[in-house]
Amino acid sequence: MSIPTPHITAKEGDFAKTVLMPGDPLRSKFIAENFLENATLVNNVRGVQGYTGYYKGKRVSVMASGMGQPAIGIYSYELFNFYGVESIIRVGSCGSFDPDLHIRDIIIAMGACTNGNYAMQYRLPGTFCPIADFSLVRRAADECEKLGLNYKVGNIFSSDTFYDDANSGLEWAKMGVLGVEMESAALYCNAARAKKKALCICTVSDSLVAPEITTAEERQNSFTSMMKVALEIAEA
After folding, report:
1. Is 105 marked active-site?
2. CA distances from 64 to 117, 129, 164, 180 (A)
3. What confidence tens digit (pLDDT) does each residue in 75-104 have?
4. Which of 162, 154, 147 is nearest to 232 (CA)?
5. Whether the Cβ atoms of residue 207 and residue 102 lie closer than 8 Å to each other
6. May I ask the CATH architecture of the domain 18-233?
7. Of 236, 219, 216, the residue nearest 91 (C-alpha)
8. Which position among 14, 98, 133, 206 bears the catalytic label?
């Protein structure tokens, strides 16, 4: 396949080596307008807005993934394999399984458990464990320390169901899984297969163990700490 792809109309060279990837297109727009200088819209197929600009002199891109493993699977695959992107940092929201992690705290996903079948395509004779790039994990943790943020590093659960009829999410907490979202496992699989780098940094938007929740507007516009962390560790 050549570029443009079926899902991205950007030209060769339009994306920087590092792409921040929120799920929400409006969060992509928010990052571009509030953190990047000279940001240019390079993709808007299906409203999945992608921008490239500069952060403290570094050329950085940001593009939305939409919701779920199939969606981020498509966009991250095309960025890694056709647009020469070397690192993708997901900046998303998640639900917390941990009583010590409250809204606006941060989870750095070192590994991604899943109930999905994304890795089945590789026909492996066993179970693949999708993990982040360690250099990005370490730098993100260091940046959280520098900024004085409350965070934890560990496993996250990438679920294929938001409305889980079996209500089985908290079963993962028994194994020390910190929270739940819907994208990281597919991103980590694509990075591994393409021999590229990936990391998921999530802000807690609600808790499954306490009565805490944020609004859609707050999720879109107020999760700035993880954005700063991702931008600081982005590789030019």
Report:
1. no
2. 22, 25, 24, 19
3. 999 999 999 999 999 999 999 999 999 999
4. 147
5. yes
6. 3-Layer(aba) Sandwich (3.40)
7. 219
8. 206
